[in-house]
User: Fold these one by one.
Assistant:
Number 1:
Amino acid sequence: MIKKLSLSIIIMTLQLSVYCQYPNVNNDLDKKIKSFLKGNADSWNDMNIPITDGKVLYDIIIKNNYKNALEIGTSTGHSAIWIAWALSKTGGKLTTIEIDKERYLQAKSNFKKAGVEKYIDARLGDAHEIVPAIEGNFDFVFSDADKYWYKNYFIAMDPKIKDGGCFTAHNTAMQVSGIKEFLDYLEGLKNYKTTIDKSSRSGISVSYKIGEKQ
Ligand SMILES: C[S@@+](CC[C@H](N)C(=O)[O-])C[C@H]1O[C@@H](n2cnc3c(N)ncnc32)[C@H](O)[C@@H]1O
């Protein structure tokens, strides 16, 4: 009996801690996005970020009032929905890139269901080509595609990131090929301040641009 009770308390605590990660709901769009995310919380099976990391990205955008965001590696759209949710508050827009057609189409359908499609420009193609060619000034980048290319993505985006903007990258606490090279490169830059958010096991590097290249 006591065992059963303790188990129920643990389950309720876990459910409550996941529930608490969602931002406050203030309008119909918030309700729609939250309901979509909650309803699909257990069905992100395409290398998608966990809820904890979605909330980390959401908070960074809100805190800094970022408006022009780029995501590299959409998959089926979990992180993009979190980013777009934050951008719906700041009046911003997300461009997101995916190379796999099936995942791209699934992401587009998810954006519609979550009600965030008007905040997202989803592009199908190879980020190795799209990222260097993309025009504009960005204040937020989330890199979550091929890890061995992270450093190249950063180098291509650096001149397009505004002062005060930031470049974030997923899985940087993991021993994956290319991550060390990427983090070593960041460490050598005096005009970026990098920390690793370890809210989840994967780790998100967060590099704020604090000035022009020296
Ligand atoms: C880890 S998943 C992204 C998960 C997504 N950010 C989320 O949380 O929902 C990485 C995605 O990057 C895509 N990808 C890998 N290399 C790419 C490239 N060169 N250009 C565009 N997308 C790429 C993969 O097809 C995969 O869907």
Number 2:
Amino acid sequence: MERIYKFIVLHGSPKGDVSVTMQFVRFLQFRFKEHSFEVINISSNIKSIENGGIESIIDRMNKADGIIWAYPVYHFVVPAQYVRFIELLYDNRDKLDLQNKYATALSTSIHFYDNLAEDYIRDISADLGLQYVRGFLAAKNDLLIESKQTNLTKFFKRFTHHIDQNWTVENLAIKAEIPAKIKFPMHFDGTQRVLTDKKFLLITDATEENNNLFNMVKYCTQKMSSNLKVVNLNHINVNGGCRGCLRCGARGDCVINDELRSIIEGDLISADGIIIATTIKTRYISSLMKTLWDRSFLHGHIPIYNNKSILYLCSGSYTPFIKNEFEARINVFGGNLIGVIHDNVSCDQLLKQLNSSIENLIYSTERSIEVPRNFLGVAGHKIFRDYVYLAKSVFRAGHEYFKKTNYYDFPQTSWITKIKVAILMLKLKYRPIDQKFQSKINDGMIREIKKVVDKMSA
Ligand SMILES: Cc1cc2nc3c(=O)[nH]c(=O)nc-3n(C[C@H](O)[C@H](O)[C@H](O)COP(=O)(O)O)c2cc1C
């Protein structure tokens, strides 16, 4: 007979009880009445958790048999408030007693980079000593489908079975290396760049405590003295994280009125070249930097980095998850990622890379260099395209933009293509035509593009 367990559900939606994710949690509560589920609304109560509430949560986590990370995917990962909570857990690691307890994830999303969010939670779990069992990454409407309900039920049964059987779980987390403090030169002694009329923006969360990042930022400001606007998120008024109210969907404005909003609405859009200088804290960017990304949701799904070159600087343990997140974020929104400079290398290497990357940023920005999107951006665009089309009543601003800019590039809407394909399919039913077609597939594939190149030699 299976045992009875006490689960702690760390619920991450800023919407509290009125969230999609919470409905999935309630589903589990009703399906598995034999177990107890204590739900803690993390993101909607982050202020009180910061002000001492963390202690009692840690106490309850320590006493539980299993931890459920239940969160919505927000801007490629989890909401900034949830990241803040994880920072608090790290700050209180000496009080945590989670060694070999089981944990899993229950996420809701539109399947846009829900894998990245899970990678983060998996790595966090490993750092906290938990045995992480692969999560259930639901689409937000999955509960409407009976077969998906069955899947969720089976998934959770298997999770409890892990605890019953004391199964050892594969550990996919990459070990995080903590970089040594590098002795970065405090004074810039290279060539200063006189910038053209292009606008450059540097956004950072650097503090003097994080010496490496602070000095990298200083290096940039000294090298790029003119036309570089520096915004330190620690020095502006930030009135909380995104609340997920979706009020921005209609007109692209945010209900939170603070300085961060004007940076996102103004500087982020008008800049031609951008440097993001971020601290890596809990295997990810800081919750402050994540607040910037979540709040940039006011621009919805439009490619705000089109024609912009972007350079990342970061300090902390740099892992493949972080690289993937940076690349996906810039690629999806149409930007040209110059590179990621991090301090997991020697001081000499870092200086050379930094200097060259700033040159590259200036060069690329002055020439508006655009690069093709790779899979991350192309796939992301298709998800956005389909989603905004179906949810256009909510995302009216995005819908208008997508219509105007041919972002709705559904292949099946071209009648000419449809007719051509239908005629060809009919012809191919006739065996001799099919045989000829098969023998000329490769020639056919290059027929039109070859003409473009042939013309050049004419
Ligand atoms: C600010 C914001 C950012 C979002 N970012 C993503 C995302 O990156 N990927 C995704 O698949 N869904 C994203 N979504 C959609 C939510 O993950 C999805 O609607 C989820 O079910 C909401 O759950 P909740 O009601 O529990 O907050 C985002 C929604 C909001 C409001």
Number 3:
Amino acid sequence: MLICLCNGISERKIRQLAREGASSWREVARGCGAGASCGGCRRAVDGLIREVRSELEAVEPTSASAFADDSIAPSPA
Ligand code: FES
């Protein structure tokens, strides 16, 4: 599905950039142009970024939250 009609950018491309680390519509715009023209898709782009980050966080908790559990903390050297 196209998210950015001005530049013909798909949801798939935006999700890919978010998985690769894009954290704002501006970063997505730098990567593919989505959001760089009329701006009508920026909220949708930001929403997709939030979705992808939530999905990644559910699969791969940050190291900070992983080490909150003492049972998996590294042993002292
Ligand atoms: S719809 Fe994305 S910049 Fe216009």
Number 4:
Amino acid sequence: MRGARTFRSAGGTTVGAIFFATVLSLFAANEILKVQGQVSRLPGPGTNLVYRTDSGVTYNLKRTPASEALFVDTNLWPKHLLLAGNLLGNSFEVTGNLRSIKDGKVHELLYYCDVCSVSSSVPGLCVCCREPTVLTERPEHDN
Ligand SMILES: [Zn+2]
């Protein structure tokens, strides 16, 4: 009982702090950029990628869960990509789903399992049936 009361009295403060932090992060967050370009690998050990934009600027591609597929699936390297993300100095951090431009249209890049009709943002085995997933480009808008 005493635990419940303590939790409740702390609740107001927590909600206030979360609200304050949200407002702060809205102001502090970098603008999300949508940039077309292509990835290429830097020479040397390990997998280090750069993102070469159509305008000719090159950024280091940050390896995060959102960009992981680009580091492990070389099939993505020749593609004309549309990446959404933040600029952190000379680095580009992908924040959204991976997209490509194909036949002048935006496509979602995903890894699809035909057996289960399950898609994933990273290559590998299906989380459901453990069969290999297939890289799929799906038109973002059917129009
Ligand atoms: Zn499956």
